[in-house]
Amino acid sequence: MTANASPDNRWLFKTGGLCTFVLWLAYVATVVLYFSVGKLPSDGAAWLTFLGGKTALWWTIIGLSVLTDLLFIPLALALYASLSRTSRLPSLIPLALMALWVPLDLAGTWSHYASLMTLSGRYAGPATAAQRAPIVAAADYGAAFLGSRLEAVFTTGLLSFAILLGSVVMRKSGFGKAASWSGIGGGFFGMLAVTGWNLPVLLNVIGVGLWFFLVSLRLYFSFGGSASATARPAAGIPVQAASRL
Description:
This protein is mainly α. The chain is built from ten helices and no strands.
């Protein structure tokens, strides 16, 4: 398996690699900020008080998360272009799953976080108990969704399954063992993380984060490099050997 890319696709691989690298940076920053807030509340009233005084932090988390979701579009396209050269049909499945996950995560998860932020601001303002009652009721709906297993399937399970399938195909597509196995491990533990266990969540974060980083490098340098560079990754070293790194 060679890492050669046609001139028509090379711009897509470079763009996908750059976007994936930015995605990795935003992902790491989001994870650090997200874990810094501590344990999340379970009901609407608790969410409204929990978010008070943390407006800047949570809007940063929401903004970075929306950015990572959007950056999955060029990542998915570049990944499909690279994988379809050897496995066209299997590479369509992770592309379709990522395309499905992006609007679900944006419309489901982060729109609910944004609504809770807005409700928290109204709740903190001058209001009577009667005026706060509908605010708490609206917050209960958002909190119930964010704490549901369905939301976990949307945010973690579906994407993890897409990364797992894509990484299986990547094993024979010139991405190297490290990238493919980090995606397989991260995707597997991400599917287990739907259960709510802490260890799979941590292993998913590590595996997927490493996958983003390695895929960004492969897309930009190996697939998006010049024709001579992709044909000869190192003097005297065949492409097949370099792809195993």
